Amino acid sequence: MNAYKLEVRFTIMMSVLLLLAGNVALIFSIFPVNGMLFGFPIMYIIPILSGWFGILFLTIVASKIGNHIDEKIEQANEQGDPSLEQIEGFTKKKKNYEGA
Fold first, then answer.
1. Distance of alpha carbon 61 from alpha carbon 48, whole angstroms
2. Which terminal Cβ of the chain has fewer Cβ within 10 Å, N or C?
3. Geometric angle at alpha carbon 27, from 9 and 25, rounded to 5°
4. Residue 53, strand partner residues
5. Which residues make beta-bridge pairs with 37?
6. How far apart are CA 70 and CA 74, in angstroms?
7. pLDDT tens digits for 19-46?
8. What is the full DSSP assignment across 11-62?
9. For the chain, how big is the Rg over CA atoms in Å?
């Protein structure tokens, strides 16, 4: 059951981080900065680069950690975690009610 809680927390955390990385341009529009980077104005190039590379990096991290959490869930299923049986029993009963 702890792996499921970890997965929920991780999903919420990654959603917030992806939203922040994708919307960095709002920060630069609120607090404009003068300067140049690679020949482009900082207030334009930083949001673009952080959006592209930030989301790429976060996606790679999310896939690695997500796979690790899924492996923990599979191990818990194989070991017969009693808390998981309660969840599975509930879903099985629910299916039986729907079929009746």
1. 20
2. C
3. 90
4. none
5. 40
6. 6
7. 888 787 777 777 777 888 888 888 788 8
8. HHHHHHHHHHHHTHHHHHHHS----EETTEEHHHHHHHHIIIIIHHHHHHHH
9. 21
In the structure encoding, which two tokens stand for residue 98, read together? Answer: 């729907």
Q: Which token pair is 19? A: 């939203």
Cα(86)–Cα(92) distance, rounded to whole angstroms? 10
State how far the alpha carbon of 87 is from the alpha carbons of 1, 15, 17, 47, 94, in Å. 9, 25, 30, 43, 11
Q: What six digits make up the tokens of 47?
A: 């949001």
- The CA distance from 17 to 49, in Å, is 15
If you ran DSSP here, which 8-state letter would residue 31 be given?
S
Token reading at 42: 């900082």
Total-model pTM: 0.62
pLDDT in tens, 86-99: 554 444 444 555 55
